[in-house]
Amino acid sequence: GVINYTVLGTGVDTSTYSFAGTTGTDTVYVKPPQAGTARYAIATITDASNPTCSGSSTSTVIVQVNPIPTASFTIPNFSICQGDPVNLVYELTGNGSISATFTGKATPKTVSHLAGNNYTETVYGLVPGIHVFKFTLIKDGSNPACFGIPLDSSIVLVQPKPKVILSLSDSTVCFGDPVTLTMACTGNPNFTLSYKDNKGTIYPTEAGITISRTVAVPSDQDREFIATLITDGSSPTSSNNNPGALVSLKVNPLPTG
Known about the structure:
six-stranded mixed beta sheet
């Protein structure tokens, strides 16, 4: 015979379903909610040949629908100096433990944390240039078949360390002759430069340099002028405390006769 039955639950067609035979299985396709719990049960069972002959069912089916997991960077853009680490802050949403893989360096990295919180991943060793970090694979830990959709990316601009070249108007002079020191900077203006000499003199910091600046220096004895720190305007941490710039001045004594 034919058995007619109806099903109650979220996303169920209200039509009556039919099953031919006295035993066996039948399939009803439903549309559960996007997230949450759905409960399904047989509402009515009747014999098609005798509608007054009805049965009942006490069984129910519970379906747990996990939300689609997501991973998103909460700070989209960074500007750092070469050698500085970058802290990538990201948020995971979904159900339970979420694993997410992101790229941006040579080797992709997979992280796994509980959903609903912010996390930080510190990345080191970025070379100067633009680096784009993005999630490529997001999975629900409780249901590996539940994949998520990457929402955004994070762009990191790595500025090269500022540098300076020192040069003198003349490397050999007579005692008391005018001498100027030129500081030629590379990086992102505006620069500040600290320098000293090997005689223990620390000179005032030169600030606001665009590309280069020339200052008068003493010529009373032989000296080496050494750059000790240069910073530029690309970021608060964009500095170089080991510029390696050095220039020597030879001072000849005044002739006597």
